[in-house]
Backbone:
């Protein structure tokens, strides 16, 4: 077999179209524990392949009638694994670029209200659990927390015969490089953000509770500091709220990044108050977060829940303020990889000459508490 590699786009299309495929993750267990492809099976044979052993797959019951995709961190050792399988008659390929390139794989889910001519596209970077949104109201659109190539959002808008009018972030991100400024330039959209944001580039400054209008919809910006000091949430038509990293469907944002203990305690108090503001909107308001705490399967439904259900599911939301702060201090996870460099890039608003795949590689660690 001449072809030894398969691209991220090819594997993404197989999964998106529900086509049969077998994915073998050969990385060491500690790397698998960090992040993974949910549709994959894990077999820790990295060192055996490195040692040249060619019998490592012999005891596995592998299919010969569907593609087998071998995955490692950078797509190097997986080529040797795919070569071993090809020699044994399997249709096997190595995932080109490995998990570092799978970092950019994404799936799309649609939430639609035809009676309002409203579409909300949830665009999920499946490896890291990063989520962005393209909201279309009539023939105008807004994008929240763009984290992929601008063409992804522009193409969806074009297929819906709509124009991107606004682009915005919920905060200065620490685990991926924001593409919002780049999207604004390529789509000629208006780039808006909270007026207190400490960034080095120009944008349209709006204040807490200020509203923007597109199509027949309204977005109200609500200042919700805590995860960062510039964190905001965006309330769409009083029905949906895009909470960024302030509130997830399965946890809350962490307030400790780039903060000492005293600052973390202060920001935890801000986060508590911000969460109370969000919860006061009513049980039926739907939370649409910018992160999920795990890798996302392609078949996974749109990630959302209403406030009433989330309050029942996330125990930390039911604590008093002092207890809430103590719970955060007791449950802070390891920081995201390279978060300090990523924050600085997002403050500058440019990343020319930098390898984003290397910077962003690794698990999502933006939350404090799961269910």
Residues:
């Amino acid at each position: 077999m001449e072809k030894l590699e398969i691209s991220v786009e090819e594997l993404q299309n197989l999964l998106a179209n529900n086509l049969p495929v077998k994915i073998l993750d050969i990385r060491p267990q500690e790397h698998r524990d960090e992040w993974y492809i949910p549709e994959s099976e894990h077999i820790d044979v990295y060192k055996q392949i490195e040692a040249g052993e060619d019998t490592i797959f012999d005891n596995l019951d592998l299919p010969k009638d569907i593609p087998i995709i071998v995955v490692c961190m950078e797509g190097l050792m997986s080529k040797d694994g795919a070569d071993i399988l090809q020699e044994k008659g399997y249709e096997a390929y190595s995932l080109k670029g490995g998990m570092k390139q799978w970092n950019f794989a994404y799936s799309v889910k649609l939430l639609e209200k035809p009676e309002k001519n409203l579409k909300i596209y949830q665009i999920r970077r499946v490896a890291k659990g990063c989520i962005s949104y393209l909201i279309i109201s009539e023939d105008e659109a807004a994008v929240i927390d763009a984290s992929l190539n601008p063409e992804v959002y522009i193409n969806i808008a074009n297929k819906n015969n709509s124009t991107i009018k606004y682009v915005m972030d919920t905060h200065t991100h620490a685990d991926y490089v924001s593409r919002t400024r780049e999207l604004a330039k390529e789509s000629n959209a208006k780039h808006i953000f909270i007026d207190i944001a400490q960034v080095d580039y120009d944008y349209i400054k709006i204040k807490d509770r200020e509203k923007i209008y597109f199509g027949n919809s309204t977005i109200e910006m609500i200042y919700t500091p805590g995860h960062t000091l510039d964190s905001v949430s965006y309330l769409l038509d009083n029905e949906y709220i895009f909470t960024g990293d302030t509130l997830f469907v399965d946890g809350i944002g962490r307030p400790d990044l780039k903060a000492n203990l005293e600052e973390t305690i202060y920001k935890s108090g801000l986060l508590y108050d911000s969460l109370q503001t969000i919860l006061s909107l009513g049980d039926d308001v739907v939370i649409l977060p910018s992160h999920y705490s795990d890798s996302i399967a392609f078949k996974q439904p749109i990630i959302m829940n209403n406030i009433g259900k989330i309050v029942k599911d996330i125990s930390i939301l039911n604590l008093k303020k002092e207890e809430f702060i103590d719970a955060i201090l007791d449950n802070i996870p390891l920081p995201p990889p390279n978060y300090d460099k990523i924050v600085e890039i997002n403050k500058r608003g440019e990343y020319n000459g930098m390898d984003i795949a290397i910077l962003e590689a690794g698990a999502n660690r933006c939350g404090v508490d799961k269910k």
